[in-house]
């Protein structure tokens, strides 16, 4: 019954959490022909979606409006809508608390919401990134308390999310999906569902394996960024070696090497967070994840390293840092997107403002941001402004920036992304000591 509904695309899909993961997923599933009901606790987001207005840069409002107007995407704050769903996908946040411990409260809360409306034949998929054993150890017990049997009455799987916001080459449909069900039937059901809108599905033997796969992918990225950040610091210490040139040379090797780039730190909702989920879980097994701790230490140090570099560059160019006016370019955590979460640019902003007279910012994707209780607005990037600044710091290398223009009109540039290609004495690059 359930299988037929899925293959005929008549199954109704509920998505809980309509953010960077949930909203693009809703659109992709609607494109494949399913009806989607989105649930979110954020009333504003729900209202915007129901008017066909997107707040995620990868989701086109026109297309969203198209599906909303044809009743293929609806959104609500009420969990009662899950009663109508055959498939429910959980895409809520999995942050860490101030002690860097997992905070699964949103996952637990929405699982209780699902349990209240759990019915025979439903397939539940967890997408939120988490530590191994969450699906079977946290979600399953709540759903089982309904009296329904997993693998028989309802199906449960973990399918990690791999979305890369801003990536024009790889989207949901052409990025393979890993599927780990609690039972074989659960894996079969989730695999069948994903085959309707994703080109390649890779089933694994359990949710634990799928959960660990996601953490391996993100920790791999975190560790490699830390490695190259350490190399960048070493290049500065030695002097005369440009880390960017070294990476360009290393990546000519066609096997066994993959380029990662230095920068002011790591940001977003995944790379700085997910490894902590694993290190927290590892401690339960008397295991210390040395690579995770070490890479966190290096990556979290980078904003401080960059600020010292700015102060140093000001001094070398004869400016007094205490009276300096600095312009930061790019506050999003990576290029061409508007995501500010855990952005290292914010950290640089916070550390720097205590050490110089004034810090301004420009980001074409972020018109304003909150600093304590104040709203700070992005300033217009004009030749006049650039000339007035004691230093301009490139933190995120958005493609929209005209780097020649910036280089022409600035007095001093600290470039943490190797964005300014025409080098001259006023450009101070991260990863190149003089
Ligand atoms: N953003 C990414 O690039 C990315 C990539 C891979 C994995 N992930 C993982 O996916 C999950 C979701 O991330 P995101 O970036 O989409 O987060 P997000 O903050 O952009 O969106 C989450 C949404 O869930 C809603 N929400 C919170 N609690 C809720 C609840 N109890 N019930 C209903 N809705 C609730 C929020 O209002 C928000 O709209 C996280 O676990 C994250 O680690 C994110």
Descriptive report:
It is a single chain. With 434 residues, the protein is α/β, with parallel strands linked by helices. The chain folds into two domains: 2-205, 3-Layer(aba) Sandwich (Rossmann fold), CATH 3.40.50.720; 221-429, Rossmann fold. The protein is 39% helix and 15% strand. The protein has 14 helices and 15 strands. Strands 3-2-1-4-5-6-7-8 form an eight-stranded mixed β-sheet, sandwiched between helices. A five-stranded parallel β-sheet has the order 10-9-13-14-15, with helices on one face. A hairpin with a 2-residue loop joins strand 11 and strand 12. Helix 8 (207-238) runs parallel beside helix 11 (290-316) and helix 11 packs across helix 12 (344-353). The mean pLDDT is 96. Bound molecules: nicotinamide-adenine-dinucleotide.
Number of structurally distinct domains: 2
Largest sheet: 8 strands, mixed
CATH C-level class of the largest domain: Alpha Beta
Individual helix count? 14
| Share of residues in helices | 25-40%
Features:
5-stranded parallel sheet, 14 helices, binds nicotinamide-adenine-dinucleotide, Rossmann fold, alpha/beta, globular
